[in-house]
Write a structure and sequence with these properties.
Two copies of one chain form a homodimer. Chain A has 331 residues and is an alpha/beta fold. Helix content of chain A is 47%, strand content 16%. The model of chain A has no long low-confidence stretch (mean pLDDT 93). Chains A, B: Catalyzes the reversible formation of acyl-phosphate (acyl-PO(4)) from acyl-[acyl-carrier-protein] (acyl-ACP). This enzyme utilizes acyl-ACP as fatty acyl donor, but not acyl-CoA.
Chain lengths: 331, 331
C-alpha cells in the first residue's frame, strides 16, 4: 500500500500534513508514503520538529497551488506543483491513492480529468462525511457539479449507499434527497424527477429530507446537487463554528465561568467529539478510478491521518471494484 | 391599526397565539386585533387561562388547515378556515396586516394569489430574519419560489435591501448572493447571470457568500432561490438546535455539571439570546400588497408578539409604499 501525499496543501502545511502522514504510516501499516512538495521546506520542517520519516520518500516539486488559483488552468499551468505531480503519479501507478488538503477545485478537476471516472459513472461527486447527533452520514455532491441532471442525483444515491455500506459498515444505508419539504411534490423539476427515479432504486430510498433533520442523522446518505450540497455543508460547518465560539465565550466570561468549565468539561468534550468533523478527515471524490481524498483545508495532524484512513479503507474494502461491479449490474 | 391574527395556526395554537397577540396589543398600541378561529376553542382557552381580551374581537371560523393539507387546494377547499378568512379580510380592507403561524405553503399561496404582488414585483419571496454572531440579517427566498430566474434573484436583493433599511434601520445594507464559492465564476448559470446583474445594481452588492460565512453576519441580505434558501434556513436552524441540545446534555450529565451551570448561566444565556430566532418572530412575505407575516410554527407568546411587531413596523414605516416607489424608479 503506497499513499501519495500533497505536503503543500492546506492551512497547516507542511507540518501538520507530515505529522498526520507519519501517524497514518504507524497506525495503518502503510508500505510507503510519498510526500510531494518543496524538498527544502519539507526537510527543514522535519528537522526543526524532530520528526522521523518512516517508510517515506520525498519528491521535490517546485510549484505551489494556492486557493486563489483558477482550478481549470492550474494543473496544466503548474505541472510541477505537488497537486499536478500527485495526480500524475497516481495515474502512472506510482501510488495507490492520493490525499491532499489543498484547493478543492483543483482536486475536483484533477480527479475528473486525470484520474477519470469509473466506467458507468455519470458524474464523480465530492462526498463529505459529516457528524450528526446520532451517527456520521455522507452528503454528496458537495461541489463538483453545480448543476445536476436527475439521473446524476439518482446515481449519487447509489454511490453513497455503496460507500456507507463498505467504509462505515452500515447495512442497507438509508438514502434521502435534500429538499425544501418532505412531500413528494416539493422541489425543482429536476429534484422531482430524481425523486421519481429514486423511488424504484435498488437502494434504500427513504424520501425527501429537510435541512432541519440533516443534523440529527435521519439519513445515512443525503443527496443534493453540488451547488446546494456545498451550501448545506458550509452552512452546517459555519453554524457549528459560530455556536462553539459562543460556548467558548460563555466560559471565558469571568473567573466563576472559567471555574465552572471544570465541572462540565467532560460533557462539553463529549459534544465536541460527537460534532467533530476532524474525526472523518474530509471528503472523498466518489466515482473516480482511484482513491482521491480531499482532507479539510484546516486539517491538523489527526484530521489528516483520518483522511489517509479513508484512502486505506477504500483500498482495503476494494471499494472502487465494488462500485464498478454494481454499476455493471445496473445496466 | 388593525391586525388580523390566525388563532389556529402553529404548534402552540391557540393559547400562545392569543397570549402573544395580547402582549402586542399592549405594547404596540394596536387599535384592534381580530382573532380568527373556532370561537368555542378560543373562548374556553381565554377563560381557562384567565386572559383578558383587550381591543380584540373574535371571528368564528369553522374549518382548520393543518400542515398536511396541500397548499394549492387548501384555501379554495377550506373557505371558512382561519387562514382563508384572514386573507379575505385583509383583501377587503377589514384589517391592515395578517399574521399566522400556520402552514407556510398555504400562506405563500394566499399571499401570492389573494393578496397579490406589488406592481413591478416579479415574484414575492419569503424573507426570514435570522440571527448571526454579529447582527440579524435577512435570507430570501426561503421557499416561495423553488426555481428562480436571475432577474428574480436580482430583485430579491432590492426588496431585502429596502426591508433591512426600513425595518432594521441599516444604512446601505450589504447584499450577497449565496453561492458555492466566493469567485465570480462560481455557481449555476442562473446564479452567474444574477451575479452579473447585481454587479450594477443600485443596492450595495458585495458579491458571493459561502455557507460558512452566513452565520457570522457578513451580509445584511443573503439572496438565494427558494429551494436553496429553504435548505440554508432549515440546516441553520437544525444545526443550532442539535448543538443547543448537546450543551443541555453536557450540563445535565451529573451533579457537578448541573452545579457548574450556575457559574456559566449568564454567558450561555447571552449566547442563547444572540442566536434566538424568536427575537424576530418569523418570516415576512416580501413583495405583496399588504403585510403578511409568517410566524414560526413553534412560536410561543413572545415569538408571536415579535411576528406582530414585524407587521406593525411594515405599517409604521410605509414599507410597501416605499417598495412600490423604488420599483417605479427602477423601470
Amino acid at each position: 500500500m503506497k499513499i501519495i501525499v500533497d505536503a503543500m496543501g492546506g492551512d497547516n502545511a507542511p507540518l501538520e500534513i507530515i505529522k498526520g502522514t507519519m501517524l497514518a504510516v504507524d497506525e495503518f501499516g502503510i508500505d510507503e508514503a510519498v510526500l510531494l512538495g518543496d524538498e527544502n521546506v519539507i526537510n527543514s520542517c522535519v528537522k526543526e520538529n524532530n520528526i522521523t520519516l518512516n517508510n517515506t520518500k520525498v519528491i521535490n516539486c517546485t510549484q505551489v497551488i494556492d486557493n486563489c488559483d483558477d482550478a481549470k488552468v492550474v494543473l496544466r499551468g503548474k505541472p510541477d506543483s505537488s497537486m499536478a505531480v500527485g495526480f500524475k503519479l497516481l495515474n502512472d501507478g506510482e501510488g495507490d491513492a492520493f490525499v491532499s488538503a489543498g484547493n478543492t477545485g483543483a482536486i475536483t478537476v484533477g480527479a475528473t480529468l486525470i484520474t477519470k471516472r469509473i466506467k458507468g459513472v455519470k458524474r464523480p461527486a465530492i462526498a463529505s462525511v459529516m457528524p450528526s447527533t446520532s451517527k456520521p452520514f455522507v452528503l454528496m455532491d458537495c461541489g463538483a457539479n453545480a448543476e445536476c441532471k436527475s439521473e446524476y442525483l439518482y446515481q449519487f444515491g447509489l454511490l453513497g449507499s455503496i460507500y456507507m455500506q463498505n467504509i462505515f459498515g452500515v447495512a442497507n444505508p438509508t438514502v434521502a434527497l435534500a429538499n425544501n419539504g418532505t412531500e413528494e411534490t416539493k422541489g425543482t423539476p429536476t429534484v422531482k424527477e430524481a425523486y421519481n427515479l429514486m423511488k424504484s432504486a435498488p437502494y434504500n430510498f427513504i424520501g425527501n429530507i429537510e435541512g432541519r433533520q440533516i443534523p440529527f442523522g435521519d439519513a445515512d446518505v443525503v443527496v443534493a446537487d453540488g451547488f446546494t450540497g456545498n451550501l448545506i455543508l458550509k452552512t452546517y460547518e459555519g453554524v457549528a463554528k459560530a455556536l462553539m465560539q459562543g460556548i467558548k465565550n460563555a466560559f471565558y466570561k469571568n473567573t466563576l465561568s472559567k471555574l465552572s468549565y471544570l465541572g462540565v468539561r467532560s460533557g462539553i468534550n463529549d459534544m465536541k467529539t460527537q460534532f467533530d468533523y476532524k474525526e472523518y478527515g474530509g471528503a472523498v471524490m466518489l466515482g473516480v478510478r482511484k482513491p482521491v481524498i480531499k482532507a479539510h483545508g484546516s486539517a491538523d495532524a489527526r484530521c489528516f491521518k483520518n483522511a489517509i484512513k479513508q484512502a486505506v479503507m477504500f483500498l482495503q474494502t476494494d471499494l472502487i471494484d465494488k462500485i464498478e461491479k454494481e454499476l455493471q449490474s445496473e445496466e
